[in-house]
Design brief:
Elements (H helix, E strand, L loop, with lengths): L1 H4 L15 H20 L7 E4 L2 H15 L5 E5 L4 H12 L3 E5 L9 H7 L4 E5 L13 H11 L2 E5 L11 H4 L3 E5 L10 E5 L14 H4 L7 H39 L3 E3 L10 E6 L4 H10 L19 H5 L4 H5 L1 E5 L6 H18 L20
Parallel strand pairs: 2-3, 2-4, 4-5, 5-6
Antiparallel strand pairs: 1-7, 6-7, 8-9, 9-10
Helix pairs in contact: 2-9, 3-4, 9-13, 10-13
The structure holds pyridoxal-5'-phosphate.
């Protein structure tokens, strides 16, 4: 990936939107990257707009739906979306728009009939995430998009968590817009994409230059775009590994923790979720304390999403699933990736019970200590 980027940080510094030859040469690579990102989701390259991040994709999709349909002032989303939707919705409400946040079931599932009933004549867009970033729970986007089509309402999905984990085929999904963020595919941070189906009316969110066929102003971040293209290829190639090896590691890790540590529960559906995510609630302790304990032994995990780190509020996702605030505060998200190994999961399984026991003030008769120098388990 880095090798793919380097030429565009050194020799090929031309501006792809310029008329001179040197820039046009760079433009070819931008288009090559666009084609690869498009291929990852079975889209036409002309349907792919590069953005700076997933947040921009979500905000742009919703904004465009409202701007291109001025008579429609209602947005339908869910109570478990990323803050890119939650806070954008709140900002829209302040500006006089109506936003409905659909509730979810205790296992994180969405009631599709309720969604259907909640679509109104003035609904401009239904924006529902495909997979939840905290629990990994997957929503049935194909069904949701079909409902939207039957009602003539635009459908957007935040698919930021899915590349490399779910097969993305925008034609099968039937959505009008879909957002991605490249750092979830191990590409650099600060680049994303928004798929906009052909013939969908679109109004740019960033208004300025004519880049991205007039759909997003701003000079192109060429090196990051090229990296995103390469990452898209790798994500397609890694799909099988995520769904077999990584899933098996996640399942083993989760099963062992649930069996060996008392008072731990899984949050979210066991079956309808991403292959890499496990969200566990540890009774009687604060997640932050567990995270510090894990960090001290070189294991990176999180509570909630990185975008809400530092907030003392319990996760809005877990509260929407009906967890008591104390239980939500004790929830940790462990997510694995294609670079994690079985030894790293062993290491986590060895360290975690002692950390939890110490925090609960219990004595812990640990298992055999792992060899020194082993890499941490969870990223
Ligand atoms: N949506 C989901 C589901 C996410 O997990 C994230 C980031 O973690 C975002 C949106 C926002 O993406 P970005 O940080 O690239 O703006």
């Amino acid at each position: 990936m880095v090798e793919a980027m380097v030429p565009f940080l050194s020799d090929f510094w031309g501006n792809p939107s310029s008329a001179y030859h040197f820039g046009r040469q760079v433009a070819k690579h931008v288009e090559g990257a666009r084609a690869k990102v498009a291929e990852m989701m079975n889209a036409d390259p002309r349907e792919v707009i590069f953005t700076s991040c997933g947040t921009e994709g979500n905000n742009s999709a919703i904004n465009s739906a409202l701007m291109t349909q001025p008579g429609k002032r209602h947005v339908l989303t869910t109570a478990v979306e990323h803050s890119a939707n939650m806070k954008f919705g709140a900002a829209l409400q302040k500006r006089g728009y109506d936003v409905t946040y659909l509730p979810v079931e205790p296992d994180g599932a969405l009631d599709i009939h309720l969604l259907e009933k909640s679509i109104r004549k003035d609904t401009a867009i239904v924006s529902v995430m495909w997979a939840n970033n905290e629990t990994g729970v997957i929503f049935p986007i194909e069904e949701i998009a079909a409902i939207c089509r039957s009602k003539g309402v635009l459908c957007h999905t935040d698919a930021v968590q899915t590349p490399g984990k779910l097969k993305i085929d925008v034609t099968e999904l039937g959505v009008d817009m879909l957002s991605l963020s490249a750092h979830k595919l191990h590409a650099p941070k600060g680049i994303g994409a928004l798929y906009v189906k052909k013939r969908t009316k679109f109004q740019p969110y960033l208004i300025g230059g004519g880049q991205e066929q007039g759909r997003r102003g701003g000079t192109e971040n060429v090196a990051n775009m090229v990296a995103f293209g390469r990452a898209a290829e790798l994500a397609m190639a890694g799909l099988h590994d995520e769904n077999t090896r990584v899933k098996a590691l996640r399942d083993r890790m989760e099963k062992t923790i649930l069996a060996e540590i008392p008072d731990v529960v899984r949050n979210g559906s066991r079956l309808h979720r991403l292959p890499n995510t496990s969200n566990l609630s540890f009774g009687g302790i604060e997640a932050e304390a567990i995270l510090i304990g894990l960090d001290n032994v070189g294991i990176c995990a999180s509570s909630g999403s990185a975008c809400t780190t530092g907030s003392l509020d319990p996760s809005h996702v877990l509260l929407a699933m009906g967890l008591k605030p104390t239980r939500a505060r004790g929830s940790v998200r462990l997510s694995l990736g294609i670079y994690n190994t079985a030894e790293e999961v062993d290491y986590l399984q060895e360290e975690l019970p002692g950390i939890v026991a110490r925090l609960r003030g219990e004595e812990h008769h640990g298992r055999v200590k792992h060899a020194k120098g082993t890499r941490p388990a969870v990223a």
